[in-house]
């Protein structure tokens, strides 16, 4: 896939994950995750997060990319299971543009 198409990958994968809701768990890893349920999917996200942290400390570029891809993938499955999309998360990140992290933290402390 060409670099210019990279921004479409999240949407394409999300569409595929949506399709997998009707798939057979025996022939699709994603369908097998849906079948195991939200808690199992959430557990996978947690495990992949830990693996990302370990890879980062190990300072191995390829390992970090690999583990981050696993984390993003399982996070997308979790979003789909919750009937949310990458666009929902991207919209939230977009909303935060221009708002410094420290400023945001201070606002939260006031709530
Ligand atoms: N991007 C991915 C992707 N990344 C990682 N994985 C799978 O995630 C699993 C994670 O491996 P682990 O060792 O952590 O887990 P495990 O030991 O297999 O599973 P557990 O027993 O821990 O649950 C592996 O089986 C990987 O193959 C993925 N599986 C699917 N996709 C995408 O999802 C699409 C649909 O997949 P299927 O539903 O399987 O057709 C594929 O075409 C891909 O685009």
UniProtKB/TrEMBL annotation:
UniProt keyword Cell wall biogenesis/degradation present: no
Family per similarity comment: Belongs to the PRA-PH family.
Gene from which the chain derives: hisE
EC number in record: 3.6.1.31
GO MF entries: ATP binding; phosphoribosyl-ATP diphosphatase activity
Gene3D superfamilies: MazG-like
Subcellular compartments: Cytoplasm
Ranges that cross the membrane: none
Keywords: Amino-acid biosynthesis, ATP-binding, Cytoplasm, Histidine biosynthesis, Hydrolase, Nucleotide-binding
Keyword Acyltransferase: no
Main location: cytoplasm
Catalyzed chemical reaction(s): 1-(5-phospho-beta-D-ribosyl)-ATP + H2O = 1-(5-phospho-beta-D-ribosyl)-5'-AMP + diphosphate + H(+)
Name listed for the protein in its UniProt record: Phosphoribosyl-ATP pyrophosphatase
Enzyme class: hydrolase
HAMAP family cross-referenced by the UniProt entry: HisE
Pfam family, one: PRA-PH
InterPro entries tied to this protein: HisE (IPR008179), PRib-ATP_PPHydrolase-like (IPR021130)
GO biological process, one term: L-histidine biosynthetic process
GO CC terms in record: cytoplasm
Organism listed in the record: Guyparkeria halophila
Pathway: Amino-acid biosynthesis; L-histidine biosynthesis; L-histidine from 5-phospho-alpha-D-ribose 1-diphosphate: step 2/9
């Amino acid at each position: 896939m060409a670099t210019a198409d990279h921004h479409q990958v999240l949407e394409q994968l999300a569409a595929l994950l949506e399709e997998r809701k009707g798939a057979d768990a025996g022939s699709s890893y994603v369908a097998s995750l849906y079948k195991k349920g939200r808690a199992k999917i959430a557990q996978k996200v947690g495990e992949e997060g830990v693996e990302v942290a370990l890879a980062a400390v190990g300072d191995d570029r390829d390992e970090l990319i690999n583990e981050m891809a696993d984390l993003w993938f399982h996070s997308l499955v979790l979003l789909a299971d919750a009937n949310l999309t990458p666009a929902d998360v991207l919209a939230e990140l977009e909303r935060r543009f221009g708002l410094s992290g420290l400023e945001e933290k201070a606002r939260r402390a006031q709530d």
